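Hi there,

I know you've been waiting on this one. I reran it after we fixed the sequence typo, so this is the corrected version. Both the input and the resulting structure follow.
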Amino acid sequence: MPPTPLARPVVAIAGCGYVGMRLAHWLAAGGYAVLAGSRDPGALRHRLPRNALAFRLDLDSGAGVAALAAADRVVAAYPPPRGGTNDPRSARLVAAMADRGKPQQAVYLSTTGVYGDRGGKAVSEIDAPAPRSERAQRRLDAEARWRRLGREGRFRVSVLRVAGIYGPGRLPAEAVKAGTAPRVAWPETRYTNTIHVDDLVALIGRVLDNGRPNRVYHGCDGQQRRQGALIEAVARALGTSLPPPLDPAAAERELSPMRLSFLAESRCCCNQRARRELGWSPRFTDLDAGVAASLAEQRGEG
């Protein structure tokens, strides 16, 4: 259930994409006022709830950053740029917030990719990051900027390291049907981490309400999953044969470096801190149930 606020704090979503749109509806249902920032606010307006306002936000140029001064809380859900090891978007937004002295709180959505390859070992929130890809290095740079802002004491900043997100409209269903969903036949078992979008949205809400200052939380379902588990669950739900796996050499040739980086790393992230400190628990720990619910929503059922 969405939170029941004592007042109507304004929550700004900086980067209102797939997760941000689900979050906007969840917050609005709880009575919050929502500011939804996007480079193309016109594309958002017909999809937003009634008590949400879309505005133009471009973190490359700085356009719209001043609008965040009206917010009590900010959820930073934007991606970093595609190149380099630093995140100038976070640098720009954090500097603007430091100058204005608002909002009261920020939650930055990062990635579990900052841990790099752990050879399938369990990873907790106290383990040191060891990013291997530039993409993960950019995320870690952004985390450092946000946490530095939090250490200055004027804001309560929390970092949420998020696993692979799936949900309605975010499933490889067409690729599974076409036999093109990438599966790699690694010589050893490799593990991945997932979370249903609605579990992630509920977790963001808990962090907004009760997240500890400068705290890192994991946004994952906490289940040990083999690489390819999501593709296998989608295939079962559709009653479709699994696409043939690629051998590692073929994967190196055929997949983009970004896609390959997702498939090559192996780790099992836990979520005990979020469970213990925030009283959160994911609804969809069973991947088949999460995929079935997602497909049913896509079909307009229920």
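Quick highlight: The longest helix spans residues 134-151.

Best,
R. S.
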